[in-house]
Amino acid sequence: MLLLMVAPAWAGKHSKLDSIQPAPPELLLPEGRKVTWERSISLEREVKPKRGFWTKLVDVVAGEPDFHYLVDPYSVTTDSRGRIIVTDPGAVGVHIFDFAQQKYKFLTRRDKDKDAMLSPQCVAVDGLDNIYVTDSKAGKIFVFDNGGKFKRTIGSLKGGEGFFKRPTGIAVDSAAQRIYVSDTLRNRIYVTDMTGSVLQVIGKPGTGPAEFNYPTELRLRGNDLVIVDAMNFRVQVLDRSGQFRYSVGRLGDGIGWMFRPKGIGFDSEGHLYVVDGAWGVVQVFNDQGELLYYFGQKGNGPWEFQLPSGLQIDSADRIYVVDSYNRRVQVFHYTAIGKQS
What we know:
This protein is mainly beta. The protein is built from 1 helix and 29 strands.
């Protein structure tokens, strides 16, 4: 049964996503559910305390300090402390926004002779908030501790090259001591232990169940392994052994279809959120693959996206969407049944 089909532009007879009208301040859904826009994040300065009179006076004399900003952000995750961690291939590093502590940190290994970071892609954290970053050009995974100190790489081979052809999505299961990595150019998912030893390979090139055509983002949810199968224009759901369970999506430009699926996530009610980078929307499905609602349109205002990519939903149902071309992360809040204020 559909939860709803009432996103603003779909209340009429529109059939294509290029017909979208501006979204309201809140997207009101049945039974008290709603999605609310909260804020956007783009600058280091947004995390820091407001600058006082004397600090501003020093700025006049010595010049205002340089602040980091999002250049070409791609992926986002959050950790147990509520920190927002964003990969940025354009800046060749990783931004950590800590609003609770009013702190910011930028991680990079751009100029290192050994294990240089070249193009950070997706990011995940483990149970201790260690940070794992795939690098699509280096062919490796960079691991930092929860304070941002570089620890090691996974996938480094003799001579400095990386094991993976193009590692993209990553998910970490601390309880099982497993790391899941999509190798987009090999059309496979690698399952390793925490040291990087390969334990299992899932999938092969193709269009059938548990076959892939450029797999990218990954998510673990319960016993499920959820994979964006980008050029098959779908999201596949497998069990941890690699057995196919179901898929969501198909190629098209209409309601519930996909063209450039990117980031994925699940809210507390188990709804699947899928970013579509081409259309500038986030579509939301149930586990039968039925579209429930969507939000977004092309633009640079609130609720609007230009080439969105990564997505993360935290334990409080805050939805973080990387709005790449607008150089920001937009933050929304989903209110589930029984959680209305």
